Request: fold
Amino acid sequence: MTIADRTLLDMFETMTRIRLFEERVTLEYQRGDMPGFVHTYIGAEAVAAGVCAHLTDRDLIASTHRGHGHSLAKGCSIAGMLAELYGRETGLCKGRGGSMHIADFERGMLGANAIVGGSIGLATGGAFAQQVKGTSNVSVSFFGDGGSGQGILYESMNLASIWKLPVVYVCENNGWAESTPVSYSQSVVDLSRRADGFGIPGHVVDGADAFAVYEVAGEAIKRARRGEGPTFIEAKIPRISAHYVGDTQKYRNEEDLADARRRDPLQKLQSQLAAAGLLAEETLEGIRAAIVEELDRGVAAAKADPWPTAEGVTDYVYSGAYGG
Reply:
């Protein structure tokens, strides 16, 4: 597959936006200004960018507790996400969801999910809805290697295969289910092999290679749009950051950490684009400066925005039909 120069630059900008967003969120959280709990997407940027580059606002995604990267790649606004992380009324979910429950239906983002594997059933149901409506839209479920141990995955893959639902299952395998290594918790080296039992194509891809992710995801999404059913993609990614902000990672050795840092997907794509003459230093600095400025504005606005009130505790809980 030939990838257009503009697409490559767009993916790089998306990955840079995710990285800078997560670095800023980490800083703000460590200052004690940001409530709740934070899991960052650092090291997985190529997966969200490579998959979502093929999607429109009409397509659906469902995410994990580590959902910032998926949200940004799907087009959610930095300002709305920051306001949500700060718990403000102006957030994407009116300050009610926080980091682990960000959603934006206008962008086709069905939501981050604190339940391990919680995205799988939602995305499968979303795919079924698109099939019933007769659209060409697809649905993508993102989950981790830990989520691949949930029974809902196998029930969903079976149903999706039988009904040829337009869904793509994307397993982001960083080798760790929190502090449990894959070598201990999984019976196979390649989790994608489990798709064989349901007659679903399974692919392993280097999740640190934006080119590779884009190509594999593109074929899977085209297949879904043609009505040929689901695909399982296992993206093996480096776990550069800790499981959550504040995790000391004493269960990992320095060799494992150093290997993850060497596989940095953002640095890899930056080097590839620079070598191809597509990313001059001034272009890189311009991209970074624009994102930093957007982050500065977003943080300042979020801190000044109002908190939800006690009187509004039940607002947005029920649909209008139930008097919410």
